[in-house]
C-alpha cells in the first residue's frame, strides 16, 4: 500500500503530465529561444542595462527559474484559492499598494516611472496587474452572469449601509480602472494599452459591450487619425517621449538622427539579416548601434542573426501557443474558463502585435516587450503566470466534466461528445 507522501507525489506528477502539451511545449521552446536571443543580444552591446555577458547569463537564468516557479505556484494557488473573493480582494489591494508605491518611490527610466527597486531586486508591478486583471474579470464576470448581486452579497456582512444596485459594476470596473489610471500616470502607456485591449477582448466575448465591434473599429480609426494626421503642435497634452515616438513613427528616416534613430537602426538590422541571417552571435547592431537590443528590439537582433527563416519559426511557435489557447477557449463549457483563456490568448496576441508593429513601423513604439523572448524578469514571470492561469482554468474545466484523473485521450473524446451535445 502506497504511503500518503507517495500518493501526493504521484498526484503532483500526474497533474503535470496531463497538462495541455500544445501549450506547455511551445511555452518552453519560446523561453529557451528568449534565453539564447538575450544572451546573444547582450554579448557585446554597450547599452545593455546589466553590463557584461556573464551577468546576462546568470540573471536571465535566474529569471527563467523564477518564471517556472511562478507558473507552478500560480497553477496550484489559483486552483485552491483563485475563486475566493478574499483572494481576489487581497490581491487587488496588494497591487493597488504597489502601484501607489511606484508613483511615490519608483525609479524613472526612458521617461516613465514604472519600477520599484528593493535591494538587488527590481520589479515592475504593472506587468502583474496585466495578468491579474484577466483572472479578476474571468471569475467575476462568470459569477455575475449567475447572480447579478454576488459582489454585493459578499460585501454586505462587512457594512451596515445599504449598497446601491450599481455597486457590483462599480467594483468590477472601478478598481481595475484605478489601477489603469495609476499605470497611465507613470506613464507606462504601452502596458496600459495591452491591459485595455485585453480586457476589451474579454468583455466582447462576454457580450458586456453593446455594439462592441462597431466601437472597436471606431476606436482604431481614431487612433489611426491621431498617429498619422493629428497636428504635432496640438499633442502638447501628451508626455514628450510619447510625442517623440509619434514623430518617429510618421517619418523615421526624416528624424533618423534623433527621434527615429532606433527605428531606422532596427530596419537596418532586419535588412542585414536577409533570408538566412548572419549566423548565431554574428549581429553587428547589438554592439551599441541599436538601443534596447535586449528588450523592445530583440526581434531585430534575431532577424539579423537568423534571418527571415528564424523570425518565421519564432512566430510560428508563438502562433501555435496562442491559437491553441483560443481553440481551448472556444471549446470551453465553463464560463470562467472561456473568459480566462480568452484573456490570456488576447494578452499574448496584443502584446506580440504591439511589439512587432513598433519594429516594422506599423504603429508607434511603446516599449512593450515580446512575450517570453525579451529580457526582463517581471515580463517573463508575468507571462509565465498567465500560462499557469490557463492551466488552472483548464483544470477547472476538466473537474466540471469529471475528467481530472483520466488520460488526455479520454479527455479529448469526452469533450468532443459534450461539444456535439451542444454543451
Layout of strands and helices, then pairs:
Blueprint: H1 4-17, H2 21-41, H3 53-81, H4 85-105, E1 107-109, E2 112-118, E3 121-123, H5 125-146, H6 150-155, H7 167-185, H8 189-206, H9 212-228, H10 240-250, H11 261-273, H12 298-331, H13 335-360, H14 377-400, H15 408-420
Helix pairs in contact: 2-3, 2-12, 3-14, 4-5, 4-7, 5-7, 5-8, 5-13, 5-14, 7-8, 8-13, 11-12, 12-13, 13-14
Number of helices: 15
Distance between the termini: 40 Å
Tell me the overall shape.
globular
Structural class, by secondary structure, is mainly alpha
Low-pLDDT ranges: 45-51
Strands of the biggest beta sheet: in what spatial order? 1-2-3
- The share of residues in extended strands comes to under 5%
Residues in helix, %: 55-70%
Number of strands: 3
Largest sheet: 3 strands, antiparallel
Order of helices and strands, N to C?
HHHHEEEHHHHHHHHHHH
| Mean residue pLDDT | 85
- Cα-atom Rg, whole angstroms? 22 Å
Short summary:
By secondary structure, the protein is mainly α.
Descriptive account of the structure:
- The chain is mainly α and 423 residues long.
- The chain has helices spanning 4-17, 21-41, 53-81, 85-105, 125-146, 150-155, 167-185, 189-206, 212-228, 240-250, 261-273, 298-331, 335-360, 377-400, 408-420; strands at residues 107-109, 112-118, 121-123.
- The chain has a 3-stranded antiparallel β-sheet with strand order 1-2-3, covered by helices on one side.
- α3 (53-81) packs parallel to α14 (377-400).
Amino acid at each position: 500500500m502506497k504511503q500518503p507522501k507517495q500518493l501526493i507525489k504521484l498526484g503532483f506528477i500526474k497533474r503535470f503530465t496531463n497538462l495541455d502539451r500544445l501549450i506547455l511545449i511551445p511555452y518552453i521552446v519560446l523561453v529557451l529561444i528568449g534565453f539564447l536571443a538575450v544572451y546573444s543580444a547582450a554579448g557585446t552591446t554597450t547599452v545593455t542595462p546589466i553590463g557584461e555577458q556573464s551577468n546576462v547569463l546568470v540573471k536571465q537564468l535566474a529569471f527563467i527559474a523564477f518564471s517556472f516557479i511562478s507558473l507552478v505556484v500560480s497553477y496550484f494557488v489559483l486552483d485552491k484559492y483563485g475563486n475566493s473573493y478574499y483572494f481576489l480582494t487581497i490581491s487587488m489591494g496588494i497591487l493597488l499598494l504597489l502601484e501607489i508605491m511606484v508613483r511615490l518611490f519608483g525609479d524613472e527610466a526612458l521617461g516613465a516611472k514604472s519600477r520599484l527597486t528593493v535591494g538587488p531586486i527590481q520589479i515592475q508591478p504593472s506587468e502583474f496587474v496585466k495578468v491579474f486583471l484577466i483572472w479578476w474579470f474571468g471569475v467575476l464576470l462568470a459569477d455575475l452572469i449567475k447572480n447579478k448581486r454576488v459582489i454585493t452579497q459578499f460585501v454586505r456582512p462587512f457594512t451596515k449601509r445599504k449598497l446601491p444596485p450599481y455597486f457590483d459594476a462599480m467594483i468590477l470596473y472601478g478598481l481595475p480602472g484605478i489601477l489603469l489610471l495609476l499605470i497611465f500616470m507613470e506613464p507606462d502607456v504601452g502596458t496600459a494599452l495591452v491591459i485595455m485591449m485585453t480586457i476589451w477582448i474579454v468583455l466582447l466575448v462576454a457580450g458586456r459591450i453593446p455594439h462592441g465591434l462597431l466601437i472597436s473599429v471606431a476606436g482604431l480609426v481614431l487612433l489611426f487619425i491621431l498617429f498619422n494626421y493629428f497636428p504635432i503642435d496640438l499633442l502638447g497634452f501628451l508626455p514628450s517621449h510619447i510625442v517623440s515616438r509619434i514623430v518617429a513613427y510618421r517619418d523615421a528616416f526624416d528624424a533618423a538622427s534623433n527621434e527615429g534613430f532606433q527605428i531606422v537602426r532596427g530596419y537596418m538590422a532586419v535588412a542585414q539579416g536577409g533570408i538566412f541571417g548572419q549566423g548565431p552571435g554574428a549581429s553587428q547592431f547589438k554592439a551599441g548601434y541599436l538601443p534596447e537590443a535586449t528588450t523592445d528590439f530583440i526581434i531585430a537582433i534575431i532577424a539579423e542573426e537568423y534571418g527571415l527563416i528564424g523570425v518565421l519559426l519564432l512566430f510560428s511557435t508563438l502562433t501555435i501557443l496562442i491559437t491553441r489557447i483560443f481553440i481551448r477557449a472556444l471549446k470551453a463549457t465553463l464560463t470562467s474558463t472561456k473568459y480566462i483563456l480568452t484573456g490570456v490568448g488576447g494578452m499574448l496576441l496584443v502584446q506580440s502585435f504591439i511589439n512587432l508593429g513598433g519594429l516594422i513601423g506599423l504603429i508607434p513604439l511603446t516599449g512593450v516587450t515580446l512575450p517570453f523572448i525579451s529580457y526582463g524578469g517581471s515580463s517573463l514571470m508575468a507571462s509565465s503566470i498567465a500560462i499557469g492561469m490557463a492551466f488552472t482554468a483548464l483544470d477547472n474545466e476538466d473537474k466540471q466534466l469529471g475528467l481530472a484523473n483520466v488520460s488526455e485521450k479520454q479527455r479529448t473524446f469526452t469533450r468532443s461528445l459534450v461539444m456535439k451535445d451542444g454543451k
